[in-house]
Amino acid sequence: MSVVAKSYNKSADPIVAYCSEHTTIQIPLQVELQKETLANAPFGGMLGAPEVLTFGQNFIRSLGGKRALDVGTFTGASALAWALAVPDDGEVYTFDIDHTNYKKFGVPILSKDQKTFQKIKTVEGPAVESLDKLIANGQSGTFDFAFIDADKTSYPAYYEKCVTLLRSGGVILVDNSLRGGKVADENQRNDPQNAAIHATNDIIYKDARTYSALLNLGDGTHVAFKK
Ligand SMILES: C[S@@+](CC[C@H](N)C(=O)[O-])C[C@H]1O[C@@H](n2cnc3c(N)ncnc32)[C@H](O)[C@@H]1O
């Protein structure tokens, strides 16, 4: 068992587990989606860590965020979290190469709360291309918040595009920034996914366009604040 872990897998470090317990807040709809995803969705462990989702909601609410980018939908847990946090006229763009899991496991649960569900806009296809289309459509600087949680080798590209799409003061959360601790181990960087996340952590740390902090929250959360 790793000390870096999503809370539904429990960290081996009792202090990390204690912090997660005293961070996570979920409404019944979120609990239902979490149970359904972990029980029935293929690769259910891709589900976003609830403590990271709460942390992101806190940023959105504190920022007065209205528009969120959600890169990697899966069954919709992160999209639901952001949709609950933005106001009634807010919107969440959620990107996935294939929305089959969202339609099968997410939509039957999320659609029970139509007011929240209507805020979620699905964009299917490779997310790098989808984000490029938003930039080409003049959306740069118009989003308040971004969550990066799709294929790991594209993380440097996702970060770059999200910085462009965020307004000054906007916040990016990068999920799996420690990947079970493997990213912090230089002997494990021959794995292309660990290497790409490590490269992203370096890019963020050195990026003069953002302030940032890398946290042992969930599977590792790199937080970047656009200047
Ligand atoms: C870790 S899951 C997302 C979890 C979700 N954010 C949550 O909180 O439960 C990663 C998702 O990225 C999607 N994905 C993989 N490659 C992609 C790509 N090139 N473009 C867009 N989505 C991709 C996968 O289909 C998968 O659903």
From TrEMBL:
GO molecular function, one term: O-methyltransferase activity
UniProt keyword Iron present: no
UniProt xrefs under InterPro entries: Cation-dep_OMT, SAM-dependent_MTases_sf, SAM_O-MeTrfase
Signal sequence residues: none
UniProt keyword list: Methyltransferase, S-adenosyl-L-methionine, Transferase
Coiled-coil intervals, chain numbering: none
GO biological process per UniProt: methylation
Xref: PANTHER family: O-METHYLTRANSFERASE, O-METHYLTRANSFERASE-RELATED
Family: Belongs to the class I-like SAM-binding methyltransferase superfamily. Cation-dependent O-methyltransferase family.
Protein name (Swiss-Prot/TrEMBL): O-methyltransferase
